[in-house]
Amino acid sequence: MTDVRMLITGASKGLGAVAAVAFAERGARLVLVARSKDKLEAIRNSCQEPERHLSISADLLELSDIQSAVLKSQEFLGGIDVVLHSAGGGLGFRDDLLTHEELLKLFALNLGAAAEINRLVAPEMKKRRSGNLVHVGSIASNEGVGSVGYNTVKAALAAYVRSLGRELNRFNIIATGIL
Fold first, then answer.
1. In this predicted model, what pLDDT tens digit does every residue of 119-156 receive, in sequence order?
2. Could you give the C-alpha distances from 31 to 65, 79, 101, 156, in angstroms and in order?
């Protein structure tokens, strides 16, 4: 993994934070993205050789934040080899009958942000004929163990990953999901 250039969303806590530390230990160069600058900096500083990594505070519900974060990532790393889409969740929406706005917000975070980041990084990967797009899904995508909204968006993410993987495979780009 030495010098693999990696963008990790949701890197300020949970799986994203654990992955950041683990990949840094293996020599990857990282850009960590999440909303909380303080938490991101704490994770970056806990990584081996923190000066090799960058933290970017961004709200992945805001298209301009996503675009800016990807551009800064590409500039800092000189390109992106791997994206780990760890950001997501149910946003605390537990109602069985979600409002239109709540459902759109869930889709924007869990699927829309990943799709936009992929749209921005995949052209370079296609030219290189190499890349990995890893999406953190959930068993809720097919087992319905979470809330209605969470189950729905994770099922949509799973379908997106299967479809995207099939299309990008011919460019030697692996689009995959983990549960």
1. 999 999 999 999 999 999 877 667 767 778 888 999 99
2. 14, 11, 30, 26
CB atoms under 10 Å from CB of 164, counted, come to 20
Q: Are 9 and 58 in contact (CB under 8 A)?
A: no
Percentage above 90 pLDDT, the chain: 85
Sorted by sequence, the CB contacts under 8 Å of residue 32 that are 6+ apart come out as 8, 11, 12, 16, 20, 40, 43, 44, 53, 54, 55, 56
Contact 117, 66 (CB under 8 A): yes
Tokens standing for residue 160: 């997106």
Rounded Cα distance between 140 and 147, Å, is 9
> How many residues are present in the chain?
179
What is the mean pLDDT of the segment spanning 95-116?
95
In contact, 131 and 173? CB cutoff 8 Å: yes
**Residue for token digits 């974060």?**
69
